[in-house]
Batch of 2 targets.
Target 1
Amino acid sequence: MSEKKIALYDGPAGGWGALKSVAHHLHEQGVAVKGAKTLLHANQTDGFDCPGCAWPDRDHRSTFEFCENGAKAVAAEATARRATPEVIGAKTLKEWAEASDYELEATGRLTEPMVYDAQTDRYQRTTWDAAFALIARELQALPDPNQAIFYTSGRTSNEAAFLYQLFVREYGTNNFPDCSNMCHEPSGSALKPTIGVGKGTVTLADFEQADCILVFGQNPGTNHPRMLGELRAARKRGARIVSFNPLRERGLERFADPQNALEMATLGDSPISSHYFQLKVGGDFALLKGMCKRVVERDALDRDFIAQHTAGFDGFIAELREQPWEPLVEASGLTREQIEQAADLYIAAERSIVCWGMGITQHRHSVATIQMIVNLLLLRGNLGRPGAGACPVRGHSNVQGDRTMGIYEKPASAFLDKLGEVFGFEPPREHGYDTVGAIQAMLDGKGKVFVAMGGNFAAATPDTAATWRALRRCELTVHITTKFNRSHVVHGRQALVLPVLGRTEIDMQATGPQGVTVEDSMSMVHLSAGMNAPASEHLLSEPMLVARMAAATLEHSRTPWLALAGDYAAIRDKIAAVLPDFAGFNDKIKAPGGFRLRNTASEREWVTASGRAQFSTHAMPTDLAVARVADRHRDVRVFTLTTLRSHDQYNTTIYGHDDRYRGVYGHRRVVFIHADDIKDLGLKAGDWVDITSLYCADDVADVQQRRAERFLLVAYDIPRGCLASYYPETNPLVPLESFSLVARTPTSKSIPVVLSPHAGPAAADAA
Ligand SMILES: Nc1nc2c(c(=O)[nH]1)N[C@H]1C(S)=C(S)[C@@H](COP(=O)(O)OP(=O)(O)OC[C@H]3O[C@@H](n4cnc5c(=O)[nH]c(N)nc54)[C@H](O)[C@@H]3O)O[C@H]1N2
Ligand SMILES: Nc1nc2c(c(=O)[nH]1)N[C@H]1C(S)=C(S)[C@@H](COP(=O)(O)OP(=O)(O)OC[C@H]3O[C@@H](n4cnc5c(=O)[nH]c(N)nc54)[C@H](O)[C@@H]3O)O[C@H]1N2
Ligand SMILES: [Mo]
């Protein structure tokens, strides 16, 4: 671990620091040579899709596109370390429970299937046949298939996801919680009824033509580094880049492109944002409504578009005119002049794109906020024409594709009809559990078998204490995974850990080496093929694992499971038979870079109830948890805590303990806070505090308390009253009952909390 220090970083994002960091991580993972060779195949026409993020590749370049955090994701998978049954079995699970998330994953790639042995409290080696027999026995023993829950994380390929949802539906349930429930679910929920597609409408070509790109609640310098290349190019052309973020994020300010020889040699860099608005955490709805108000007041409307393509305009502007400015100013944390300035930048542009990330989605009113983004776009006809549109920037590299493949707890009946017809069975119709619902069901004893296709449910989900109780109540927990993580340590009465191939590895089946497909954030579907030798000879591919699990469990299935898993082209033919947009799938992916799925909104065809793009009217929310808690606790200072990613992690996978751009080294338990707020608390930067979250439902008098201990106070450029800290360490503070309306996404970006000095020896130790 690096030396612990807090030291302001004043360089650009990217640059030599990024190259140095990659060299360090490759070395750490023991993959200096193989890793470097592997990196050169990331996002190449004949290579694998980078497991880092869902940002699209520019026409699958023939030259290697450098990305620091993509490189770390690849290095983490291509690591030389091996978590054999001997390594994992050397400790009891009670002992493993003491290890950090970092230490768990640092054991390396899992090599063989393992089963939990309650007698010794250890995982031990098992065979694949025994593992599938155990799963089959437990699933068949359940009196109701709805007692089984099947989670998916977003790295799973289309082929694996399609087989997985088919298996689960033939088994008899729609219980498909997935990482999307905690991520961009509100984007889909907001977009589908308003513009007819639950996805973004733009492509990279639009980024070349936009005059104004608005970036809300997103930190691309860390989470989508390749996006900085597009933003930088746009800025160089003279486009305006307008950022809305409570924190000043270095990646949104300045960037030195490692691709650019001159910038690297001269230590030069390029500005990214032309304008930066540091609004309050959760202030976006008010800000966006204010921007819409200004657009209407200035009469800067595309009246032809509104008349021809939209519905609900009159109701929307009538309510908007009634909306006083004062509450908008108060809730946004910006001045009226700033809100007007932001709107004027938007008005001045001929073509605008709005991008957003988790800073928008993980709030109580996220769906309304995203619909306010849609309103803003509709007012000026910024949908369905070049250089304009909506751009929710997805997280996991195939999270969008998994949904397209049917990983959804509320499937459309047309999809189920077709699935049943193609495979000759009657799919279940009842909607299933999402992530919050699944935790609740396990807590209530209604969910008894938990199967996870990737991910780290125990660490990624809200309300850690409740989630762990839920998982521990299960009869059986099954994790299909590449690395050892928290979810394997917090297990059911019986437990299996089943290791699979990663994307960078050669996937050899009966008919030869196989490629899989993924869909990026801009609906481009393309092939991905690994080139490294598998981490162990015992690994199964995800499609083969699902096929064998299905063949063992479903005695009357007519699906040729093993034949499908022996030839992924055959799976793709079935996908094409079920999903009309995939007609000719196997031919289409032969084109370098693949093909784009049809996006009706980008053609100005509106597949909505009214047949038009829909304005949505939303009043200012009055039911905010922070306000409710502050009202009941007038004697203490209630802060709004937002939880985010450091530069050295991939969700729950912790690569290291530095957050270079925010000046944090060797620490993860930090809380960013305004210097004046530290003073008001009678504390100083460098002091240790405990964080207590307070939560009360609308109609309940009880205030629930949750606690996470020992965080270092870091003075930071963040609005007063707002705090930021890293996830997953802060997940114990997120109440299970607190989620966004409609989408049910945990509100991990607006948690009411109070701070208190940490007493006890740990503070001294850690400092
Ligand atoms: N290297 C790396 N890449 C990743 C990931 C990773 O962990 N590591 N995760 C992947 C996944 S699954 C996802 S979903 C994406 C996540 O990518 P992001 O959406 O960038 O995720 P966060 O780090 O949660 O950061 C959200 C940003 O929102 C800001 N923010 C916080 N609260 C608010 C608010 O109320 N309003 C506004 N306007 N801004 C706010 C924060 O300051 C931060 O800059 O990245 C993907 N890519
Ligand atoms: N407080 C708070 N909580 C959050 C968030 C937040 O911003 N704040 N963000 C939320 C978001 S946006 C998301 S997407 C979720 C993420 O939730 P998850 O998707 O469940 O979590 P990850 O950390 O991405 O999962 C990492 C694990 O995936 C496994 N894995 C990696 N590659 C593969 C593979 O190729 N195959 C298989 N089978 N397994 C693999 C490894 O075991 C690794 O440990 O967390 C959410 N939780
Ligand atoms: Mo995500």
Target 2
Amino acid sequence: MNRFVVVSAAVFLLISVAYLPLLNDLYWSSLKSLIPPVRVVADLVVRNGTIFTSDDTSFPFSDSMAIRNGRILKVGNFSTLKDFVGDGTMELNLEGKVVVPGLIDSHVHLISGGLQMAQVGLRGVRQKDEFCKMVKDAVQKAKEGSWILGGGWNNDFWGGELPSASWIDEISPRNPLWLTRMDGHMALANSLTLRIAGVTSLTEDPVGGTIMRMPSGEPTGLLIDAAMELVTPYVQEVSVDERREALLRATKYALSRGVTTVIDLGRYYPGTTDELSWKDFQDVYLWADSSKKMMIRTCLFFPITTWSRLLDLKLQKGPVLSEWLYLGGVKAFIDGSLGSNSALFYKEYLDTPNNYGLEVMDPEKLSNLTMAADKSGLQVAIHAIGDKANDMILDMYESVAAANGDRDRRLRIEHAQHLAPGSADRFGQLHVVASVQPDHMLDDADTAPTKLGFGRAEKESYLFQSLLNGKALVAFGSDWPVADINPLNSIRTAVKRIPPKWNHAWIPSECISFTDALTAHTISAARAAFLDYHLGSLSPGKLADFVVLSTNSWDDFSEDCSASVLATYVGGMQMYP
Ligand SMILES: *[C@@H]1O[C@H](CO)[C@@H](O)[C@H](O)[C@H]1NC(C)=O
Ligand SMILES: *[C@@H]1O[C@H](CO)[C@@H](O)[C@H](O)[C@H]1NC(C)=O
Ligand SMILES: *[C@@H]1O[C@H](CO)[C@@H](O)[C@H](O)[C@H]1NC(C)=O
């Protein structure tokens, strides 16, 4: 090749490179003048409100928001959104109303909740007579021989006496009864049910469970924690259709409370089989998703014993099955509940001497399962209520992280209800999520001191501010159907901590700010389930889930935490009313 050609080619190249930015500009500006700009037109513009975004990287408030294809285009003052308004843009004028991001409930048992709505509802029953009357009414309506299921009772409401089969045997000679306590850790069987399940004075207490007995050794009908498994295999199977209806019923109810996303921890009795969560997934959730019946977003957790099955599914399908259905992690239990005196404590219960609570699973087995599930990359959530149970899980999580190496794992403790001195700080230090349920304190405030002693109850219970001080990620939930699903109430409870019939806060130093409480039901709840890429705040690119409230004043709302849900939008579509 000729030297001249090589040199001039090199010079040309150099000049071109030097002028590339300029050429580029010229090129683009000439092109732009030829093609009209592509305009992004919003499907919906929400305006003239007080929109709280829960987005800590931008303005917390704005007055308008533009939405397209179910996602947020932009949040800002109306003047900055005008460009998105075009043919076909719908407008929602909020007339000053307050809007918050769709509320996320970090811990529910959605199908159990929906089923319970159709069963004997004993929540709030205040007397033995009323209890018996409701059961009697249900028996009269039921077919002879069919199972009668119900739940929600709380013996603390009538002074503490535990119900027994003798309360209900006469009114239910031919129908087996199975009535769970509101916390799901205890259930009452009538004598017919005990007979069907073969539970007698000779039956030994299973590991992790207690059969309540009369002095003669005869069972009273009450079965605690793992002892419930003696009966659950015999309880009439709920049909697929009933479970599907339960999901739809539960969904509608949740939407009416402003809930747009739930983390579903599966069926709520420790006694239910691990297989049931998978059956619900296949028969109910996949059915609802494929037949376009999902109306709230659901992230599912599965029993820890089935972790490899979940792993296979996630490897095959990824964590996002659809805009509605997300695969979360695995769930386990270490202890029971305070109400059933089965939460695990360092010191004995004052009202049942020598009782420290129960380990409902062998800790070594649980640790092995957690180690394996975590190593595979799955998120782990473990139920721990008593102070000792919480420390056991914190220790276990610490060794799991040390063994499996640094990772953004967001290990969760569900409930984290009673924490020994210093333990609240460990959540932040170890990056363990505190998945807590403020409304449970309304049930526990009167009884915790009688069970734990006043000093211990005051130092250890529902330490939300301490957890936040320790920089823990705190996510709120209801544990529905254990408590009602009602995030606005749970926010109020966390801020005020005033139990029914009290006129002052329970442990005032643990009251948290309104913004912190709202954060715990929105962006923190999303982070706690690895959903924050899609959900949790009103930010560009995220799903357009939001709730219109009945108030026009942010100041009033944040002051007395009282407002009701006027409308719930999921993906920019009005789902309630
Ligand atoms: C909206 O406008 C108000 C005052 O007109 C201003 O204070 C606020 O910062 C603006 N918000 C955004 C998101 O630009
Ligand atoms: C915004 O809402 C207020 C009520 O708070 C109403 O008076 C006003 O007319 C509305 N503005 C627009 C532009 O719709
Ligand atoms: C837990 O794992 C260890 C080490 O693999 C094993 O030796 C032990 O038997 C396991 N324990 C249980 C209860 O599975």
